[in-house]
## 1
Amino acid sequence: MRLTHFRESPATRAPDGEPGSSGAHGWELPLLVSPLLEAPFVHGFTTRAGGVSAPPFDALNLGGKWGDDPANVVENRRRLARALGGRLVVARQVHGAAIARVRAGDPTAAIARVEADGLCSDAAGVTLGIFVADCIPALLVDPKTGAFAAVHAGWRGTVAGVLPAAVTALAREFGARPGDLQVALGPAIGPCCFEVGDEVTAAFLAQFADARERGVVVPSPRGAPGKSHVDLKAANRLLLERAGVAPDAIDAGPECTHCDRARFFSFRRDGSATGQQMGVIGRPA
């Protein structure tokens, strides 16, 4: 992943590479981006920087569920939508494997009531977003059909197969072939910090017979009785490959949301006294 910046001032609004500056009363919003997801798609993974929220939600909190001032969340989302250049669309995430299609004319408020952990579309001018605060934000694109998807993959969604479900949805709705897809897995809790108990370990071992051999489940580095650590990105990479995505078409950054307090929100680290990042993907109108 590499870092890019979007800058907006009262007089001039422009992303990197175009004329413009942040100005005395402007703002700057950094986004992590993957070199795999190229034009015509626009995408990004947000950090804590670039917003207006006060502590403990500082500063670019994009989630409205844990007590931040709603006006601050609205402004933060406006900035993100400006950076991507499209109408920001989100769903009601429930840690499942449902993928919902978004069409150009679908009302934003109606989609926000749909229970789904993934959104897919091929409509220009639409930006799909998913909320995370340790779970994986996954972005998928098909350069041949122009289809794209944003997926929220926590441990429950992972064992339920939410990313393979997104691959299937892109094929069903748009004719996308798995071998043509390109996928970026954004900042999430790493295996260094994702300690789980026997119940979660058993769920992964049931989904992945070779979980220990593939490094999906590893022993507790602390030697804690009844505890293991899970590598969510390794698990989802394996699921994507099994679904037909080429290994070299999957970009999984090393960022750990739990470790990097300065850059990322983390529910596992801070509980509900925290905000949410987003992964976003779209095609400009």
## 2
Amino acid sequence: MPTLRQLRDRVRSLKNTQQITRAMKMVAGAKIRRAELDMRAARPYAAAIGDTLNKLGQSAGAGLNHPLMQAREVRTRGLLLMTADKGLCGAFNSNLVRAASNELGGDAAARLYLVGIKGRVQLKRTPNPVAAAWPLGSKHFRELAREIAHKITEDFTSGAVDQVALVSSRFVSTLVQRPTTTRLLPIAAAGAGERDPGKNAFEFEPDVGAVLAALLPKYLEFTIFQALLETQASEFAARLIAMTNATDNAGKLIDEITLAMNKTRQASITKEILEIVGGAEALKG
């Protein structure tokens, strides 16, 4: 049975831990508000640029032709995985890595593009070659998205990879963050090959090809940018929940150990009283 001193040390240690988890909870709660605002502000633009791409597909029909849209036989796959740089956010990183592993399906030749230190650490023992890696917080998301888009575009157009998928977190709510898999390359425009001039009377200047050449790199870059925002907001939400649970659990353990400490102290006092009474009775006898 632990001594009274050991119990006091455990209570002191738990209180220190609780202070840390409470501080991390407050920081995550403050950061998630800004991250969620940025993420929700970007969603309408992502929807609009995707809608414009679909209109291009419907207007041009089967005439769409761009290197980023060229589907070919898949010999080498690429996977862009986004995780956090830090832990202490529950199963957030593990769920994303598991989703990436399921997407790979044991394909040892697939090339990895890793965003976030935790994903790189967890996948370092896999046989898959790492084509590029970036810390999530290495630079502003606009610059980071531009750099990632340039790298995977370069590899796709050169034939180093024939298909690229994205595994990132989708922010549903503070309580729900869902790993999501999206195909990045080749880009598919909804409605391509199904031209209906009567229904889709859109005109593009100077022509569809020029608009497509300007739009597709921006579409790819912004898709990655949106995924970075969603992943960051999901990380903060997961850390908020994890630190809330840790703080509450520390409080429960403190209460339990305090109760055990009080019982131990009470037993010690009772034992001392009995020893004093027994000594007094022995002196009388």
